[in-house]
Amino acid sequence: MSSKKINRRQLLKSSGLRLRDIRSVDPSLWMTNSMPSLLVREQALLLNLGTLRAIAMKERVFVFDYNREGGRAFLKMLLPRLNPKNTNGGPAMPFELEVVEAALLSRIQRLERKLMDVEPRVAALLEVLPNRLTASVLEQLRLSKQALVELGSRAGSLKQMLLDILEDPHEIRRICIMGRNCTVRRGNNDMECSLSSDKQIAEEEEEEIEMLLENYLQRCESCHGQAERLLDSAKEMEDSIAVNLSSRRLEVSRVELLLQVGTFCVAVGALVAGIFGMNLRSYLEEHVCAFWLTTAGILVGAIAAFFIMYSYLKARKIL
To answer: TM segments (predicted)?
Structure first.
């Protein structure tokens, strides 16, 4: 096993691919090829799994930006699998299938680790909310929801890619005949090989590939489903928080309305007191009990007006 760096021209020459094929895995064109994909060509498999972009051939693999997170995880998963000591004496898988499995395994394991990281945080938030509404808790909920949306999107894209491959037996058979003198008819997907042994091996590999893809599809569906469930729980909690806040705002509005009614009634009493405070003779000042009667009348009138307004608002279901 050896490694070396090559440029684009050398890559095209050694792989037999076209320039448009390279564009599907070129990291510099991530805006146009961001969706996961596994493209099958006559002599190569083109893998696009987020930060992992690779071209797998019969005996070698080209990894773009191998120092990125996806490339490092892929190499960490692939290199031990290529060690003959780790085969336990059993038959080794074809190299290109080892590459595909290592790529899928590294990708799904990274998704599962992210899920395991965000799941306890969401569970802890669901326990304290909505009773503990603080800025830090709400910010943690927002970040957790954002992480779940991103995780669900990535897992969903990978799941759709695996489903598309499994639903297309023609592509699976094209993977099986790589490096062999075989052809696959487009109409009925029949496999024709110059050697019967090649056809037998290709058919066995076809079953192996389907089982491999089914296995990782189940893991991807599990990860995607759990992320969606956590996201639904977070959204329900947001709805509960919104209802809680609306209830609190309603209580505050009711208190404000009661204070405004009370202020209005007191203001009417102050108006009456102001009228009697003018320097005009009303002859009431000559009576001994006029002050106390007027004061009592103002208080009783203000209280009566308050209860009348309160009863009216209750009858109209405003309070």
So the answer is: 257-278, 290-313
